[in-house]
Task: inverse folding
């Protein structure tokens, strides 16, 4: 009888362990799936109303010692390449203007 | 006659003693982006004290970089944080170099700092020092002063303690000056400062107004430039200025 109870208890314990492992795996799967869904949604080209813009900021400095001026150009565009080129052009023009003002 | 000559010699010796000029040399650093980025450079500071008058200035001691590098325009003057103090007339003049690298002198209050001294002590170059802290023009400063050197002066505009400041730094450690040596010198050229003091010069509010005017001019120029070089882009250019001393 004792052996039967012991066997039953061991089987029950084994069942609980299996259930716990299964639950963990299920949670991981669920999280992974959720991430995948959100990733697909983020880059969904079929939703033009949710189109994402790439924003690039370029900075320049005018150093007078205890006084510093910071010039920044922030550009948003549909592609990061376009935004970068535009921000660089903007900052280049801005610094040129600053030099003209100084001279 | 001999007695008169002797008296004259003693008097002249006394005057010579009274006009002894000492140069206190400091070494340290300054971050010209003060907290927003790391643009530290090494500096040598000199405080020349002659009687009640003194002059402090800081010169870069590290590698000199090109004045225009990429998107940075370096218009720093050779000497920075230059300050002339005259305790007798309770005057302080400080130098400002504008965008055209022309220097202007403005007046400011001599030693307005409300120092909080503490019992904390340490030795700098073998000289015992005491600690004091203060708030000045928007920044917190710590000074280590030497009670044995009874000169109530220090680097830049700092001073007013019962002893020479041998080390000073701000709370973020963007500006730091430490005494390294001293030497007797023949004197320093005070004429320019004295002439400006005699003529009278504008104070800190006028300096703040000039700084604002310069950057307002720059902002206007940038605002006028065409930023639309890309049809699909939204571009915005902004100019911000930051001052070591708080300007309202």
Result:
């Amino acid at each position: 009888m004792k052996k039967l109870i012991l066997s039953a208890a061991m089987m029950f314990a084994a069942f609980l362990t299996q259930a716990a492992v299964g639950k963990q795996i299920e949670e991981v799967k669920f999280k992974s799936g959720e991430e995948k869904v959100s990733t697909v949604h983020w880059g969904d080209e079929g939703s033009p109303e949710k189109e994402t813009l790439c924003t690039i900021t370029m900075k320049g400095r005018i150093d007078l010692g205890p006084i510093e001026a910071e010039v920044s150009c922030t550009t948003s565009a549909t592609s990061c390449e376009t935004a970068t080129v535009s921000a660089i052009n903007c900052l280049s023009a801005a610094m040129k203007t600053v030099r003209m003002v100084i001279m | 006659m001999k007695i008169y000559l002797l008296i004259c010699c003693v008097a002249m010796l006394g005057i010579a003693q009274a006009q002894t000029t000492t140069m206190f040399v400091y070494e340290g650093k300054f971050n010209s982006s003060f907290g927003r980025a790391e643009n530290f450079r090494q500096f040598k500071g000199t405080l020349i004290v002659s009687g009640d008058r003194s002059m402090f200035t800081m010169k870069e001691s590290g590698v000199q970089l090109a004045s225009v590098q990429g998107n940075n325009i370096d218009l720093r003057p050779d000497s920075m944080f230059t300050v002339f103090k005259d305790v007798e007339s309770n005057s302080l003049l400080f130098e400002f170099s504008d965008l055209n690298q022309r220097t202007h002198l403005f007046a400011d209050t001599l030693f307005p700092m409300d120092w909080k001294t503490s019992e904390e002590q340490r030795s700098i170059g073998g000289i015992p020092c005491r600690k004091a802290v203060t708030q000045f023009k928007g920044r917190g400063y710590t000074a280590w002063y030497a009670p044995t050197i009874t000169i109530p002066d220090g680097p830049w505009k700092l001073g007013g303690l019962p002893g020479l400041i041998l080390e000073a730094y701000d709370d973020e450690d963007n500006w730091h000056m430490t005494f390294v040596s001293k030497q007797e010198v023949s004197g320093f050229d005070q004429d320019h400062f004295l002439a400006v003091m005699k003529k009278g010069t504008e104070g800190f509010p006028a300096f703040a107004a000039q700084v604002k005017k310069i950057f307002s001019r720059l902002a206007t120029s940038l605002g006028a430039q065409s930023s639309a070089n890309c049809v699909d882009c939204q571009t915005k250019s902004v100019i911000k200025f930051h001052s070591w001393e708080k300007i309202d």
Notes: Helices of chain A lie at 2-42, 80-102.
